[in-house]
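Field: sequence (string)
Field: structure_tokens (string)

Example rows 1 and 2, in order.
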Amino acid sequence: MEVEPVETKTVYVTPQWVQSALDGEQEGYEDILIAEVGYGDVADCASYNEGHVPGAIYVDNCEVEDATGSEEGAYNLLAAEEVVDYMLNHGITKDTKVVLYGGDVSGTARQAFAYLWAGVEDVKVINGGIEAWKDAGYDTETEVNEGEPAEDFGVEAPAHPEYRLDIEDAKEKLETDDNFKLVSIRSEEEFLGETSGYNYMDKAGEPEGAVWGKGSESSTDVNGFLNDDGTVKDLAGFEEEWADCDFTLDNELSFYCGTGWRACVPFLVLYENGYDNISVYDGGWYEWLMHDDYPVQVGDPASDDCEHTTVGELPTGKAAK
């Protein structure tokens, strides 16, 4: 079966496309690096050890973001040079054709986003992950693979600082730019300030001026952005999800969530469809909570009942149980 080629900026690809690349049938993709994304050491990643795409190496989410939750890191992306060092250890440079997949849709998107931000020019994700791969009838293996380390990344990182919005710029844009929309990719309960969604965040609410972008039923999913088979929806599916939201694709959009994972999914879908008015506000609600004087909304911002306050004045006791 002939599989159609895809563009460099296409992120979500089918297992059939990946297999055709492995078979040498996709021009320019005769040498791809496939990696399963997990959290923690490879020895602790059950899915990788039970069976992964043949030839796939293992990469860790902690290689792209701070995992301590400290005030300095706040689960934000690591410094670009650290991300690059980890990638070079795997043999990833700016020119590597990277194909990722993983058990967590958001975690995989986070890795893909970080690689693009740092400067890898072509990053793809197997849409549907290992289950889609197996459903397509392809084999797996259990051998632990490692990449061949590289020395030169090939570009100064981050090559695309514009993909990431820091907290100071997010706050300033909310206050001064009417075309800017800070889009919450959180559950309705999180957006309305009924719960923080996390057991380590004791206060709930959203940055004042944020709008809801739906997508999640809890802090651990992006079910609203997925098809019934677990694949990420296409652009039309996102537009349907967002039809009644308080933003359009003509706005400057910065997506955020609790700590940055869920927000990367809509970024990637818009990125692969050619949008350049997009970013991820990396710090999310977690970093916003570290500033007592930052403005907050609690409730539906379109409602007269919405409370406008500051982080320091928020009540505690809103952590997820």
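Row 2 begins here:
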Amino acid sequence: MAIYSIADLEMLTGIKAHTIRIWEKRYGLINPKRTQTNIRFYDDQDLKNLANIALLNQKGYKISLISEMQAQEIESLVANISDVEVFNRDALDALTLSILQLNEKKFTHLLNTNIHQLGFEMTFNQILMPFLDKLNTMWLSGSIKKVHEEFVNRIIKKKLIHELCHLENQEQDCNTCFLMFLPPEEKQELNQYFVELFIRRNHFRAIDLGSDLNPTDILDGIQIIKPQFLFTIIHEESSVKFIEELVNCLNELQDPPILLLTGYYSHRFSDQNKCVRITEGFEELEQFIKTLKEISCICKK
């Protein structure tokens, strides 16, 4: 059983601690437990109840009315709300609740609803990216467990792979190729898949070499494939040395591919103008790829 402080509940539900205390005293909506040293704490059921109440309150139900409902009635209303259109804040709250419950059916349904309404790319950028950031914060604070993080990562990974499989047989611009990789300690597999998806949807070749490589292996790939671009993400400080070694190798080549870097530590290479291009986030990267596509179309005319 997980144990939460009132600050944890505030972060997880978006309800201010002051408001939670009022709901406790005035309406008895949740009842904190106490340790042997008289410290207040909340459990998983308290979190679930408060998340349900918060979602109903955001949908216009008054707290006084919710306080008179039975638990089964509250859960039924929340289930119905989760079945209708969900966007942004509502989507994040509903997705978070389904993750806390390890409810794959509900999470997948919510994800599919947003994909149907917004398209996959917009859902990833506007819903899943903020959601993953929220989960990361929750994980660092100890508010969720490793099992929750792995649960959601596996579902999103399967979705991304499913989308990529649809593009296996599409026509490609063979004159432009992106060779993709991750430094060994990077945990950016989902983002890497999404970038590959965007590249392929613009009809460029994308070859992902994974993360179990060293810089000389990347050079072998360059010699075989002769890509115009390399792409990777560096969020970990340990990746800096890996990229430094790779850049030194690229500088020795007569006609090196452009290394597209994004991530927290990418700014470390902003002075490497010969073979490195920094992209500040996915929007800039997407714009770069779209520009390449436009240039490619013009050249074909």
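free_text_note (row 2): The longest helix spans residues 120-141.
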